[in-house]
Amino acid sequence: MKKLMVLLLLSCITLPAWADSIGYTVRNTEIKAKPFSDAATLATLPEKASVTIVQRMGGWVRISSSTGNGWVKMLNLRSSSARTGDSGLQSLFNVGRTGSSGITVATGVRGLSSEDVQNASPNPVEFAKLKNYAVNQNQASQFAQSGKLKSYAVEFVAAQ
Amino acid sequence: MAHYKILIIAASLTLSGCAGMDAQQLMQLGSNMAGKVVAANKPVSEAEEIQIGHGIASNLLGAAPLSTNQRAQSYVNNVGRWVSLHTERPNLPWQFGVLESADLNAFATPGGTIFITKGLLQHLKTESELAGVLAHEMVHVLSKHHLAALQKAANLNIAGDFAGQALNTQNNPLLDKALQAGKEVYARGLDKDDEFEADRKGIVIATRSGYDPFGLPAVLQMLDSANAQDSSLALMFKTHPAPAARLSLLDKIMANNFDGYASPTQTDARFNAAVATLK
Ligand SMILES: [Zn+2]
Questions:
Q1: How far is A10 from B240, CA to CA, in rounded Å?
Q2: Same domain assignment for residues A84 and A64
Q3: pLDDT means per 10 residues in chain B (279 residues)?
Q4: What's the pTM value of the predicted model, to 2 decimals?
Q5: Residue range A108-141, pLDDT digits in tens
Q6: Three-state SS string across chain B, please?
Q7: CA–CA distance, A60 with A62 (Å, rounded to integer)
Q8: Are B254 and A59 a contacting pair at CB < 8 A?
């Protein structure tokens, strides 16, 4: 059982984003040949169409569906109401956890419930460790540079 | 005259059901209030904000300790500190911690201490997703959402009551009261408008930092596809609007405004390496 769990957890980490998860469209949605707005439109999905999500790239996800395969805008999709059975992620979520699955929680797996938060006593020893892990602005900038991250000027968007 | 006022304040507090305070604390509160009338509109100082936040952070660490994985801890600190440089408060003492918990959650405390659980970190796919989560939490700090909420919960005028107090003294009843209120606030959650604001501004802060603007929406999609009944999501779902509602808001405000930003290409290896070391 423990081995199985480890395997499942590992597979969870190495799964490609959105592997085999199911989504549905919240509006008419064009399926594009490439993840760009001006790419060729291959077909149009109606609202509430079910799709299988294969991969994400920026604001786009690659899908397969009975209407066709290609790229659609990620925010045209939701997942919650689309669930009919165990999606890959969902069943992985249930492994080793108490809850709807009824599977016994693995020993040593620690939750963080609202009761835990309310009944907590201060832990100054742990708190003191935080500053050992903290980094300064220079270190953070070097880290960004090594990841080839660039800064952009972007204004906040007004609430709608 | 001053004492007369204190008694009236004390009496009205008692009448309005000010629970959990003994007479001595009440008198202390009363004398503080009387002394701070002038300061009532003074904003909470940054030092006070940080002090309260440290108390709350210590309490959260009492609920779940830090992961002992130093690599993951410094990785999250690097990402978070870089993102923090793109906020309007880059000089706060920002620090980040990975909590040893299988739950999926993240917490911000006043003054810039931010936590993410190991469980959530392990369910993220990219550094951009992590940046999105941390940027969301940073907005709670920037907008002082928790400070306002615990002030309301404790029925305290933090600015007035705390002004000029040495908060670092032991057995400070006002600080105790604020921290007790803090526990309630973290168990119950913020107003949903605070959460929407954190999403709305969080995507912009992550984008400024060079990350994929769709990192946070991708995390919300992951949460939306998860089983809402799972116990590892209980506190997160209790304290936040449903992921689908948060996605709908981002859907409206993002429109085509964020299509021009490419995803970083050089961060996947270090993300995978840091997260893979978490057991
Ligand atoms: Zn939040």
A1: 28
A2: yes
A3: 37 35 42 39 79 95 96 98 98 97 96 97 96 98 94 75 59 82 92 97 98 96 88 92 95 89 90 93
A4: 0.81
A5: 567 899 999 999 999 999 999 999 999 999 999 9
A6: CHHHHHHHHHHHHHHCCCCCCCHHHHHHHHHHHHHCHHHHHCCCCHHHHHHHHHHHHHHHHHHCCECCCHHHHHHHHHHHHHHHCCCCCCCCCCEEEEECCCCCCEEEECCCEEEEEHHHHHHCCCHHHHHHHHHHHHHHHHCCHHHHHHHHHHCCCHHHHHCCCCCCCCCCHHHHHHHHHHHHHHHHCCCHHHHHHHHHHHHHHHHHCCCCCCHHHHHHHHHHHCCCCCHHHHHHHHHCCCHHHHHHHHHHHHCCCCCCCCCCCCCHHHHHHHHHCCC
A7: 7
A8: yes
Q: Tell me whether residues B254 and A23 touch, CB distance under 8 A.
A: no
- A94, A98, A130 member nearest B227 (Cβ): A94
Residue holding tokens 């990841």?
A: A147
B45 domain-assigned: no
In B, which residues are within 8 Å of A114 by CB distance?
A: 187-188, 234-235, 238-239
Same domain, B176 and B269: yes
Residue indicated by tokens 């769709």: B214
Does residue A35 fall inside a structural domain?
A: yes
Q: Which domain holds residue A69?
A: 17-106
**B240 Cα to the center of ligand 1, angstroms:** 7
Range list of H helices, chain A: 2-14, 88-94, 114-119, 124-133, 137-146
Within this chain, do residues A67 and A88 fall inside the same structural domain, yes or no?
yes
Structural domain for B35, as ranges: 2-40
Tens digit of pLDDT for each residue in B18-71?
333 344 443 444 444 433 333 344 567 899 899 999 999 999 999 999 999 999
DSSP A81: G
Provide ipTM, 2 decimals.
0.81
- Whole-angstrom distance, CA of residue B112 vs CA of residue B216: 19
